[in-house]
Structure formats: structure tokens, C-alpha cells
Design a protein that fits this description.
Response regulator, 9 helices, five-stranded parallel β-sheet, about 50% helix, Rossmann fold, phosphoprotein, Sig_transdc_resp-reg_receiver, CheY-like_superfamily, Bact_response_regulator, 7 strands
Length: about 240
């Protein structure tokens, strides 16, 4: 198993506009919308990207190849991304860069405590912050030298990816009476809504999270979420 940027005897060298040229990012992210933002940032930086939407898929990827950079979401459908961060820190040889990501700023402490080199907060909007977080964590010998020229063009993920995430949430609602699934659904939709700037959806997700935290019946919050999601799907919300 080798790092993908070492597959050729002369790997491409970073440039001023593509400082991550020759590197590969593994995005462990359950949201297609957030992952599309990562994809755009990686491609604009010269890196290749692969996606795993859960811990199991990430572990499968990592048995087949060794990325340069892992970007790991805290809330995943089959567990905490902090578990994977800790595993990657403990096993050798260590990946050059391990970053945590979340829509919850309080998640940074959890991910850093597990060993993450840095943290990206959703929504992902700044290409400069993305590049800086990675380059700061790279070994000195692998950091691109010279002046970087960073485009300030906006990062606009595909609206269809948002619709895919909404469809996924609708399917999960069928089983949301299960406590663990209700917790996951609340955090998934909260992060998605924050990334997309959908205040109404974020509020509905927070209502479900509060109902769980206060041990109140979740049926009203789930019903409100279902109605809102049906409306979003029917109108194909433009972002």
C-alpha cells in the first residue's frame, strides 16, 4: 500500500496556484453537499479526492491505498469520526495530514483530543483556509515553497447534492423513532442546513436535538422535520 502521490518516479510538483498537486484527499463525510465543497476545494488546489460516507467505507479505503490527507467528519452514521482519527494517529506509518471537520464548532476539541492536526468548520467557503489547514500540518519537507496564488472565486457545491442529502434524510425519517438514529438525523440535518444556509431546516433539526436532550417525546419534532423536508423536496429549493 503506497501513498498515491508516489506511484510514479517523478510525482508532480506543487505550483503557486495548485499547492496540493500530486496529493490525494480521503474525505470521510456522510453529506454529499459538504463533500462536493471539499471536492471543489481539493481540485482547485491540485489534489485528487476520494470519498467514504461512513467509518466502514473509510477503513475499507485505507486497506487499499494511503492518502496524503484525511478529512474526517465527527458525526458519521456508524460512529464517531474521532474513533477513526485516533486509529490513524496510532497506526504507522502515520498519514501526513489528518483533519477533523464538523458544523459544530465545539467538535474541534473532540477531534483534536483524538489527535487531529487541524479542524475545518462547516460551511466550507474559504479555499485559503482549506489550503492553510493542510499545508500547516504537512511535514516541512513537503510544504510548497514560494508565494501562493489563491483564487477568491466562491465555492458553490452542486444543489443536486443538497437534494440527495434531503432524500437520504427522508429515508432515515422512517426509522427516526429509534433514539440513536434520531440523534444522528438531528446532527446530520443540522450540519447540512448550516452548510447550505437553510435556517428553517437548521431550526427544525435543533428542535429534534433538544427534544432528545431533554428526554421529551420526539414525535412532534420529527413530524415538523418531515413536513419541512417534503416541502424542500417538492420545491427543489434553490441554494
Amino acid at each position: 500500500m503506497t501513498d498515491s502521490d508516489r506511484n510514479t518516479p517523478y510525482p508532480p510538483r506543487p505550483t503557486a496556484t495548485r499547492p496540493l498537486l500530486g496529493m490525494t484527499v480521503l474525505a470521510v463525510e456522510d453529506s454529499r453537499y459538504a463533500c462536493d465543497a471539499l471536492r471543489l476545494m481539493a481540485l482547485r488546489s491540485g489534489a485528487r479526492i476520494r470519498r467514504a460516507d461512513c467509518l466502514q467505507a473509510a477503513r475499507r479505503h485505507l486497506t487499499l491505498y494511503r492518502p496524503t490527507i484525511a478529512v474526517i467528519d465527527l458525526g458519521l452514521p456508524d460512529g464517531s469520526g474521532a474513533e477513526l482519527v485516533a486509529e490513524l494517529v496510532a497506526c504507522g506509518p502515520r498519514l501526513p495530514v489528518i483533519l477533523g471537520i464538523s458544523g459544530d464548532p465545539f467538535a474541534e476539541n473532540v477531534l483534536r483530543a483524538a489527535g487531529a492536526d487541524g479542524f475545518l468548520e462547516k460551511p466550507l467557503q474559504s479555499l485559503l483556509e482549506f489550503q492553510n489547514a493542510i499545508i500547516a500540518a504537512l511535514p516541512e519537507s513537503r510544504r510548497p515553497g514560494g508565494i501562493r496564488l489563491v483564487s477568491d472565486d466562491p465555492i458553490n457545491p452542486d444543489p443536486l447534492a443538497y437534494q440527495d442529502d434531503l432524500s437520504h434524510a427522508v429515508a432515515l425519517l422512517q426509522e427516526a423513532d429509534e433514539p440513536a438514529l434520531a440523534d444522528y438525523l438531528a446532527q446530520f440535518l443540522s450540519g447540512l442546513a448550516r452548510s447550505a444556509g437553510d435556517g428553517a431546516l437548521e431550526g427544525a433539526a435543533l428542535a429534534l436535538s433538544l427534544a432528545r436532550a431533554e428526554q421529551r417525546p420526539t414525535a412532534p419534532a420529527i413530524s415538523a422535520l418531515a413536513a419541512l423536508l417534503r416541502h424542500r423536496m417538492a420545491t427543489r429549493l434553490a441554494i
